Predict the 3D structure of the following.
Amino acid sequence: MSKNNGEYLIIRNDNKYEVIIGLEVHAQVLSESKLFSTSSTKFGSEPNTQVSLVDAAFPGMLPVINEHCIKQAVKTGIGLKAKINKRSIFDRKNYFYADLPQGYQISQYKDPIVGEGSVTLDMPNGEKNIGIERLHLEQDAGKSIHDIDPQNTLVDLNRSGVALMEIVSKPDLRSLDEVNAYIKKIRSIMRYLGTCDGNMQEGSLRADVNVSVRKKGDKKLGTRCEIKNVNSIKFMQMAIDFEANRQVDIIEEGGSIDQETRLFDTKKNETRSMRSKEDAHDYRYFPDPDLLPLELNDNYIDQIKKNIPELPDEKKKRFIEKFKLSPYEANILVSDIEISKYFEEVSKNSDVKLATNWITGELFALLNEKNIEITESPISSKNLSKLINLIKDGTISGKIAKSVFEIMRDGDKDPITIVEEKGLKQQSDPKELENLINKVIIENPKNVEAYKSGKDKLFGFFVGQVMKNSNGKANPKLVNEILKKKLN
Amino acid sequence: MMSNITDLKLVELVDKIKKKELSSSEVTIAFIERSKKSKKLNAYISENYENAIKKAKIFDQKPDFKKKLPGIPIAVKDLFCTKNIRTTAGSKILENFVPTYESTVTQNILDEGGIVIGKLNCDEFAMGSSNETSYFGNVQNPVSENLVPGGSSGGSSSAIAAKLTPATIGTDTGGSIRQPASFTGTVGLKPTYGSCSRYGIVAFASSLDQAGPMTHDVKDCSLMLEIMSTYDTKDSTSVDFKRENYLTNLNENIKGKKIGIPKEYRVDGMPKEIDELWEKGIKIIKENGGQIIEISLPNTNYALPTYYIVAPAEASSNLARYDGVKYGFRSKGENLIDMYEKTRSEGFGDEVKRRIMIGTYVLSSGYYDAYYLKAQKVRRLIKNDFDEAYKKVDAILTPSTPSSAFKIGEKLNDPVSMYLNDIFTVPINLAGLPAISIPAGHDKKGYPLGLQVIGKAFDEQSILNIAFALEKNISFKNNITDWWIK
C-alpha cells in the first residue's frame, strides 16, 4: 500500500491498483415514531414493547405515512445539495425472513424522494466533491436473535418499521481517509439538520460498502463486491482494505472478480462471501398498493428550505471570514454541530483566537481523556468564556489559567470565584513588579553581568525568577517590559 | 311470529324497533334461531350467538333509537377482522386467529347499534367465484340444493338470500359481491374504491378490494352503504369526499338520465335469457324517461387477463405475512425455510397457491415489464374507456354475470372457466368505479339473474336511484323454499 501524494494505491508486482469505493449509508431518521406506524422508536427498550399491529403485520393492517419522516428526508436532501423529487413512490421489496413481518420491506426503488446531490470533503490536499446518487426512505427490519435460546431463534420487532434514509454515493471515494471524511461529513450534516443522531453504537448509522479495484489509469470500473451492514468507520476501513487486497490478489493471479455480496467478520478481520450474483434475491419490487404516490408541492419544499439551519460548509466559510480562523481551525470547529455551538457561545463573549485555542487545546484534551462528548463537558461554555476574559484583561496569566482550568474541570466552578478564593490574581502593579525585579537583579549580580556582556538567553532566567517569586502571579507581559528597561 | 321477523327487510326491522313494536332481543333471537336451523347451508364459519343475545338484551335495557341500526343483528363476511371473534378469511392458515382489533367497516356498524351474530363463509382469502375454495367447506345456494352461492362472498349471499341475517357485508375485488348477489337473487353493491375503509379487512388485492353491502333490496343497500362508508385516516387510500345520505336521497326518478349500453358486453355464447334480461332493463329505463345510449368500452376484452395479473401480483405479496412466525397456523420445520414451506403448503389451499404462484411469476425480474407493467398500462386504458363513456352517459347498464349459478363441483377443475364468471364485474374494479347488482329475473332453470348498474366514481347515489327504479318495475320474487330446513 502506498499513500504518496495522498493517493491510496495497492501495489503488486509493479502494478498499481486504484480502489473504487461507493457507500450506501443507512441513517435512522430522527423521529419519535416509525415510518408507517405510531410506535415509539426509543432505543434500548425491552424486546417487543414498541410494536404495533401494523409493525407486526397483522391481517388487514395498513401503513400510514409519518409526515415527519418525509420532512426529515427532504431536509437531508437539501443538506446534501440534492434534487428533491416532487413525486416519489413507495415500493414493496419482497423476501421472507423471520424478522420481516410483512414478508416485504416498504422502500423506494425507482422513484426515490431525493435525487442527485453532492458533499464536499476537506482532504489534506484540498477539497473533494463526492456525488450523491440518491436518498430514499425505507423501513428497518426487526432483529433475529440466535444466541439466547439454544433451540430457537428469537425475534425482536422493536426496530421493525423504524424509518431509515438510505443515502447512496456515487463510486467517487478512493481511499480510506476519504471514506472516513465522507461518513463524518454526512453524519455532521444530518446532525446539524437534526435528521439523524448519527449514533453508530446504537446502529443509527450503518453502511453497505461497494468495493472494486482497477489498474491505475484504467477507465473502466472493475467488478464490485458489496460488503453488507458495516457499523463503524474503523470496520469500514478494515473491510475495504481487506477486500481491495483480496481482489488485487485474485487479479494478479490471473483470476476475475465475481460480483457478490460479502460479510465482514470483525473478529477475523476478513470479508466472506454471503451470496453470489446468481443467488441474489429476486425482490419482485412493485409499487405498494396500500400507499399512494407521495407528492410534494413547491410550497412544502420551500417552507422546509427556509428553515434549514446554517450547515457545516457555510459555517466554516463564515468562521474563516468573520473570525479570521484558519481553514484547519474552522474545520475542526464546524465538524460537529455541538462543537460549533459551544464555540459560538464561548466566542460570543470572549476573544475568538483564545476561544479557538482553548477549545481545540485544553478542552478537547479533557474530553478525550474522559472519552465524552462536548455536550457532556464538565466546563460550561459560559465559564470557559469567563476564564478567557480573565486572561484577556490581564487578571490572570495563561499559565495560571491552566491551573484554574484544572480546578474548573471538577464541578464547573466559576473561574472568577476560583481566582478570588485562591488569590491567583495577576500582579500587574508596576511598582510591585519593579520591587520583585529589583530583588532578582540584586540577588543575581553575576548573571546580570553575563547578560549585559551579550548572553541574551539569560533574559528567560530573570523572567523565570520573577515569576517564581510571585508564585506565578506576576503579569508576564509587564515583567518582560520592565525587565528589559532595567537590564538595558 | 318468529318466522315473520326474518321475513322483514332491514329498513322495516329498524322501523319496528324504533317504534318499539319489536325488541332487539326478539329480532336477534329470530335470526339466530333461523341460522341454527340452516346449518346445512354452511353459511357460517363462526357463530357469535350467545354474545349477540347478551348484546341485544343490553341494547333493550337502554335502547338508543337515534342509531341507524338499533340493536340489529348482522352476520358479516369472515374477511372483516372482528375484535374477539375468530376471523379466518376462509383459510386454514388463520383457523385459530382471533383479532384484538375491529375493522373500520364493522366498527361503523357497531357504532350504529349493529350486533355481530357471526362470521360468514367465503372463498379462501376471497379467491374464488363459487365459495368452493373455502377451507370450511362449500356453501349451499338457498335457491337450489347443490348450487353454488357464487363467490367469494358466498356465505354472505347465501345468508342474506336465506334470511339468516337482515343484511350483510361482503368484499369485492373482481365481482365478489355482485356475482354472488346475482346468483342468489339479492342486491349487492361494490362502492367506489376509497369509499369504504380497507382497515382491518384481510387483504387480497389492495388496489381492487372494496367492502360493500349485500341486502334484500335497494333501500336496505342504501342504508348499509350510508353506515359503512366513512373517510378513514387509517387507510391511505380512503378518499375524503362528500358522502350522501343515500337512503334519504333515494328516489326512483330517472327522467333524463343517460344510460350507456356497452356493445363489448354482448359476448359470444351468452345465454339468451341474459340478453332478454338486459333488453328488459333497457325497456324499463326508456319507459321511465331515461335515455339509452350505445357506448363502447373498447378494452373490455383485456380486463380479465389484466385482472389476473394485477390481483395475483398484489395477493402474492399481501399473503407473504402468513408465514407461521407471528400468528396463525405453523407447521414444525427443520429450519426457518422448511417451516415456511410446510406452513404455507399445508396452510393454503390450491387456488390460493395458484394465485401466489401466478403473482410471484408476473413480478419476477425479467417478466415484470411484460406482465405486471403492461397490465398496469392496460388498466389505465380500461379506466380511460370509462372516463370517455362518462362524457356521454350518467351510468352504464350491463348484465352482472354471463351465466346463472352453477352446480357445486361443476367448474372446480376448470379455473379459466371459473375466472370467466367475472368478465362483467372485473373491469369495474380495475377502474375503481361503483356498481350495483340487482336481481332482475330467472333463467329457464329458475335460477336468479342480475343486472349491473355501473356509476361514475363516488356517484353511488345515481346507481342506487337507477337500481331503485329498475327494482320497482321488475318486482323480482325470489322463490326460495326453505328446502334445507327439515
